[in-house]
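Hi again,

Forgot to attach this to my earlier email, sorry! This is the prediction with adenosine-5'-diphosphate bound. I've pasted everything inline since the attachment limit keeps bouncing my files.
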Amino acid sequence: MQNITPGRLSLTLAEPADIKIESIKGVGPKSAVKLKERGLLDQLELLLFTPRKYYKCAHHYPGPQLKAERRARAEFYAPIIQVKKPAPNTRQPVEVTLDHEGQWFKLLWFNMGKASFVRELEPGRWMRVAGEISYDRTIPTMLHPDFEVIGDHAPAEILEPRLSVGAIYTVIEGFGDAKMRKAIRQAFDALASKLGDVVPREVLEARNLPGIAQALATIHMFSAFEDVETFQVELGRARDRLVYEEFYTLQRKLALDYAAARAQAKAPACTDRERGRAAVRGLPFQLTGDQRAALKTIADDLSQAFPMRRLLQGDVGSGKTVVALTAAAIVAGSGQQSALMAPTEILARQHLARAREFLRPHGVKMGFLGGSLSAGERRDTLKMLERGEYDLIVGTHSLFSDDVVFKNLGLVIVDEQHKFGVEQRESLLTKGEDPHLLSMTATPIPRSLAHSVFGDMDLSVIREKPPGRQPVRTVLRDREVAPKVYRYVRQRIEERGEQAFFVYPMVEASEASPHLKNVVEMHGMLSEGPLQGLGVGLLHGKLDPAEKDRVMEAFAAGELHALCATTVIEVGVDVANATLMVIESPEVFGLSQLHQLRGRVGRGDAASMCVLLAGERLTDIAAERLVSFQATDDGFVLAEADLRLRGPGQFLGVRQAGHAEFRFGDLTRDEDMLSQAREDARRVVLRPTD
Ligand code: ADP
Ligand code: MG
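Structure tokens for the complex follow:
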């Protein structure tokens, strides 16, 4: 799996052209440096230098009603009636008075006494001016307006009295709006007809998007439009076009990579669907529609000679494991081995237990590889694996070791894929000829992010929960009521035999964050106080692996009533009898992480509850997060909210992985367009050549 940084969108040329920034009239060597410093390296970049904003402008000064608009701008022709030039060596401004159909205007320029244009300013001459009008002085005034001295006569052209729109660019030294627009206009006139369009015409038509040249003309306002409303509609489409351009460019590259990988690959075609069906028939429950659909797609992928690259995305408890194990059955039936890798030994062992129950009756032989094995056990396991006596190996990171050798690895399954690095997945893939890959994530990645960051993966989504699941009731409470919450938990444990998790952000007390609860102290407090006499376990990352397993197994077996833990329990662990979760200092967790934690309860038929005990130091954003968390049980909705509140960089820590940052597009706002661009790029690139 590849993480993509799309880089800056750039335009392409269909035929050669001079695109040097210096070739623009009026851009000397000095201004060229200025422009380049701002990233405007050539004329193509200049075309993508889009206005910062637009303003309404009255052609033909419409009178006092304009005054009501805060940023009133006007553009009109008028004759000069008076000019005051500054006396030499004074700081007086250049001052011009115009008469626009009876309304007088003053134009002011400071520190420009020596500028050459001043010589052209003479009473009786006509000017075209455009600028912002200030009403601070006795007569309406324009400071440093854009202007042109047009001669001694009224112009033939008459500006129709109408409202129009003007563009404002981010100022680059020496380039006011007028000069910038002129430069862009020149680049546009020279290049518009030569621009290449990466997006095929038929796609543009289907999506009702303008061509790139037309979009740029609208954005820089080179094309005429009837009225402001029409312009706004056109501008919307033009901006959409740039966003689409950006997404399409990326998706096209991804699709090409994908096609190239597919063309050379020689993955084992695993076609024993019957073995998978038999296993599914043996389940004590019916698969959900989403599970069946995912399974069908995966079985199709497995039967091909190019390797599957699929991300199976499903909310916590949606039942991804059965789907993955069924895939392993198909692969085993086709004489190939599978490896199932989980981020923790607890989870790996849980998978193994499930796999045994589910697949053993169907002749799938399996082994386990994890850090807790003795040297002898490990040696034996590796030998069996290499000889092909295991069809499925379940394990942890230890599967990456160099001494792990497969006879014929046909399928790699990665559970909780975001817990592994890209290289780790890749290194496991190199242990086979060209194995299939099924990555699973219980952290729902918003589709937009999946499509950009994990763009070369196909995506299957399980949205439906198995029937009979009750949503977890989530309540947000102040820390002050903690004693009441503890009493309530105790009561449910004693009366109904249920089990509870207590979750803390810290292992031990920390000087840096004294206000955060830590698991060691709270375990002591709870087991000696409110939960005295009950079995209360302690689980955190600093315990040695054997101890962690022991605690987790005791909890899973019901020997412990409560478990005080850090987020080590966040991934995957499945204890159906656990119905209560208390999260202390919940404000430090991200929404998706909270959702992962909450997913540890509500896995059986009983009604479950999650209590957030928030401290006093709650910022508004933290409070907003917790309230939205309380409001929905849908991991996808939460993941999207997380993306909005924290941005893609923070989400899943993808920043380190090089996350998708776009120039025009926004993953949250333009999600639909990203999906469309992906769909289109794939259809165009992967279309069968006939
Ligand atoms: P996750 O997608 O979070 O990894 P699991 O695969 O661990 O979820 O499944 C959660 C629980 O739901 C397991 O106990 C599993 O046996 C059960 N399960 C999975 N699919 C179904 C189904 N279709 N009907 C009922 N229970 C199911
Ligand atoms: Mg799971």
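The two ends are 30 Å apart (CA to CA). The domain at 274-462 is CATH 3.40.50.300 (Rossmann fold).

That should be everything now.

G.
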